[in-house]
Task: structure prediction
Amino acid sequence: MVLTAPYYKETHKEVDVFRQAFQNKLPLLLKGPTGTGKSRFVEYMAHELGKRIITISCHEETSSTDLIGRFIIKRSETVWLDGPLTRAVKEGALLYLDEVAEARPDIIVAIHSLTDHRRELFIDKLDETIKAHEDFMLVASFNPGYQRGFKELKPSTRQRFIALSFDYPDPKTEAEILVNETGIEAETAKKLVAIGQKIRNLTELGLAETVSTRLLVDAAKLIHSGLPKRLSINVAVVEPLTDDVQTTQALKDLVGLMI
Ligand code: ADP
Result:
């Protein structure tokens, strides 16, 4: 448990929604592009509620066995070892399934009974059903743009969650986040945000993902620690966005003009 609260700037009444979801034992889905503060928000809320947070980054290799638990051999004996999901359910932690749409179908099946009034987990290998602790809460994140239709969340799964949308903050708020996160000067923060906005509006570039607050924070960190501004933005913002030579050059030129 972190002692000092992680910095989080509220943008759309999400703190109240989270509190109410927790009190009403409702699972919560955070939708939005990468780098828009979803994970930071969960860390912040865990701190606010005094809860431990167990994060699972979902990917196609993660199976329900990894989450629920498995038998292991210990000094010639077979013993059962709870997985992170089972631990969270038993101890009443906040379980954060990051990028839930990446999870294999067996994981989605395993969490179904935790997302409705039953709030229970069936452990097939033990043939046992456990009731979730009073304080157990399930939070999942999902990036609708990134999946581009091939890894969607099924409506039957989505409708088990209440949902909050995350997006890039307005310029004033985003500049404030950069200053708070990195100690950069307000004027430089403003310029970084303007560059971010400009690139976000260049939809004709066809970037798979555009400039996130995370990338701007990274650029601000480099600038704050003494790297030249233009270089900082090129390595923290431009290069991670694209491998296309022409697009990279066009973005670098744009940065050169704006900084
Ligand atoms: P996501 O989980 O949506 O991919 P993160 O929570 O990891 O994004 O956010 C990336 C970074 O952006 C954070 O580490 C933080 O520096 C910054 N950030 C984005 N939004 C906020 C916010 N509202 N308050 C504070 N920091 C933020």
